[in-house]
Amino acid sequence: MDKVRFFAVVALSGFVNAGLPLGAHAQELDAATTEYVPVDDAVVTAPAKLPDGFYPALSLGANLNLASNSNVVGQVDGLSLLTGISIAGELHLISGMHDFRNRISLTEAWSKTPTLKRFVKSNDVLDVESLYKLFLWPVGGLYARANLLTTVFATEQVTSEPVTYVPDGGDPADDGQTVRRFELSDPLQPLTVSESLGAFLDPIQEPHLQLSLRAGFGGRHTLADGARLITSDEDPDAIVFETLEDVHQAGLELFGGAGGRAVEDRLRYDVGLVALVPFINNDDRDRNALDLARIGFHADLNVAVFDWMSLSYQLRVVNDPQLVDDLQVQNNLLITLAYTVVKKPEPPPAPDPLAAELAAEKARADAAEARAVAAEARAVAAEQAAATQPGATTAEASEPAPSETTPQQPAEESAPTEPTAPAPADPNEGTATPAVEQP
């Protein structure tokens, strides 16, 4: 763990000393990539091992990067600043065979560089999801899911010098706009709503690996009519953009993902792949369902350097031909100061098989000992009851004891036959023994 903290601190120091904001790459993508990448659903990895009840969770995060240069060779003079906030909340309900999870996350980031004297939005994502699972057997059942993904603020392309923007296929002289701030989309635009119904399977639900599979019928609606997307900036004198339209799709949806935690819960990972084959769509180019298949991949890695600081990396790759022809890629590397307001309890640890076997053996031994003690007590009680019965006492008193009769009989047979003097107190002694007086 010390090595993990060491390398994370070294990485943070490198970013600060180099004067490079942590979100610089996201700023370059800005409207061209960041704002139009619909983030797919995260892996739902909550095992149904918690007791029934409500489980809320809420965490707050903030990041700040500051770099200032003055007369430094190879650096631009001025102040570079990146700041952002994040909010993540969850309400998880478990009741018997029902598992209902609701989550919301908000991520915002702004940056300011020496060439741009104003703050520019570099990240803006609002993600809300509800997932219901009906467990028909321990590792699977039916599910229903709904998700909303959008931005909160308006999106602009900001440059230090005026730039000409030309619509795709247009003439720069007639259709171009030469401005420093070019509006790309309104607040809450684009807004993507997706829903799906089907069956799920959670074959592995261990702390280090939680596997989730889903298959069903899904729908997706992206409201982006009028939004603009930068498609080419190869010519600095004429940046090409296209205007987006609303997209509606429905068809077969497949999802597979894995997540888990390790290194004393300080390392957490989450990967997922989702595909939607839209047999129903509003494509005006008459492409088939496979050509319009929407495939999305996401990967998240979080390392808790300290309880209050974490290093996070996020990767989003989306192929959405009906909305955008090009492949959309987004990378984010963040160092976040986090504070957990409400912490969700962890599931109880799995019982140790050896300990369970020893406990069962001890229980069986205790039960056998208890039965032996009970049997002994019953025997003593029976003896005491028999000894106190009146009939049994009289019969025992009338019978001679074997110890009194057995030794006396051989004693009389072995007695000597020599004559003895008659006792004066017994006059019948002579007649009782006539055989003794014969010569």
Summary tags:
four-stranded mixed beta sheet, Lipocalin, twelve-stranded antiparallel beta barrel, elongated, 2 domains, alpha+beta, 439 residues
Give the SSE layout.
Elements: H1 2-18, H2 24-33, E1 53-69, E2 78-95, E3 98-112, E4 120-137, E5 140-150, E6 155-167, H3 172-175, E7 177-185, E8 191-205, E9 210-223, E10 228-232, E11 239-243, E12 247-262, E13 267-281, E14 294-306, E15 309-319, E16 328-342, H4 353-387, H5 390-398, H6 402-413, H7 429-432
Question: Could you say which structural class the secondary elements and strand pairing correspond to?
Answer: alpha+beta
* Radius of gyration, taken over Cα atoms and rounded to an integer in Å: 45 Å
Please indicate the count of domains. Answer: 2
- The CATH class name of the largest domain reads Mainly Beta
How confident overall, as mean pLDDT? 79
Please, could you describe this protein's structure?
- This protein is α+β, with helices and mostly antiparallel strands and 439 residues long.
- It has two domains: 2-350, Lipocalin, CATH 2.40.128; 353-385.
- Helices cover 21% and strands 48% of the residues.
- It is built from seven helices and 16 strands.
- The strands form two sheets. The protein has a twelve-stranded antiparallel β-barrel. The chain has a four-stranded mixed β-sheet with strand order 7-6-11-10.
- The longest helix is centred in the last third of the chain and has 35 residues, at 353-387.
- It is elongated, with a radius of gyration of 45 Å.
